[in-house]
Amino acid sequence: MTSLAVGVDIGGTGIKGAIVDVATGELTTDRIKKATPEGGKPHDIVAVAKSILDELAPAADVPVGVCFPAIVRDGKTMSAANVSKKWIGFEAEALFEKELGRSIHFVNDADAAGFAEQQFGAAKGKDGLVVVTTLGTGIGTALINDGVLIVNSELGHLEIDGHDAETKASFAAKERDELSWKHWAKRLQKYYSTLEALLSPELFVVGGGVSKHHEEFLPLLDLQADIIPATLRNNAGIIGAATLASRSK
């Protein structure tokens, strides 16, 4: 049995993929990244994903995992974050399989990233409930309880003080409102305190591109649970999608 799998991570601005050694979580090829087509329509996105797979040229028996910024239920995308609304209620997995010419494992992008952190990154070996969050254009979340992924949590959309949480606490909100690290941390404090009150996790893991600046804001947060930066950063979705695909065979 091969320990290789392909991960393709679809986002609102970029689509990236690589072949992964799922025994170690290491990429075995260079990461290929291409721009998400303007408008983010289904056939356009699938065409880019196919071009990435064609460049990677995996063997026919290598599993393929695709992660996507949507709630995924029975192969359908039930929401759409930063892509066309045409994805809502769309038979996405079937289209990918038809156009790629092979079966795939299809999963939410935050779930893939969170699973990768639990398997190979900051949350490895942690028992109990781990909440992985990605701070970017929005807030993605993944829940992992004793190593088991609880799919499709959308806790970036919790209503706090009458607002969708990610509209106030995402990294995009920090940039939009020109907040200092200190003022942004106050918003993050409210967000993570709310999550902690609801879930009582053992650990928070904070990912997204801004996690490379974690020393600017994580020390300002006061929580009962430990809160630490993610380690796999922009490869987490690729690694998670590939690993989940390899385990679904």
Automatic annotation (TrEMBL):
Q: Does the keyword Kinase apply?
A: yes
Which SUPFAM superfamilies did the record assign?
A: Actin-like ATPase domain
Coiled-coil spans in chain:
none
Please name the Pfam families in this protein's record.
Answer: ROK
The record's section on InterPro entries has: ATPase_NBD, ROK
Q: What is the residue range of the signal peptide feature?
A: none
Is Kinase included in the keywords of this UniProt record?
yes
Molecular function GO labels: kinase activity
- What's in the keyword line of the UniProt record? Kinase, Transferase
Q: Spell out the CDD domains in the cross-references.
A: ASKHA_NBD_ROK_PPGK (cd24058)
Q: Which family does it belong to?
A: Belongs to the ROK (NagC/XylR) family.
Q: Which PANTHER family match?
A: POLYPHOSPHATE GLUCOKINASE, ROK (REPRESSOR, ORF, KINASE) FAMILY
Identification of the protein by name? Polyphosphate glucokinase
Organism of origin is: Curtobacterium oceanosedimentum
